[in-house]
Amino acid sequence: MSVDLAKAARDPIRLGILLSGRGSNFLAMAESIREGVLPGVQIAVVISNVAEAPGLAKAREMGLPSAVFVSQGRKRAEHDADLTACLQAHHVDLVCLAGYMRLLSPEFIAAFPNRILNIHPSLLPAFPGLEAQQQAFEHGVKVAGCTVHFVDDHLDHGVIVLQRTIPVLESDDAHSLAARILVEEHLAYTEAIAHVAGGEYEIRGRRFVKRNSSR
Question: Model's pTM, two decimal places?
Answer without folding.
Answer: 0.91
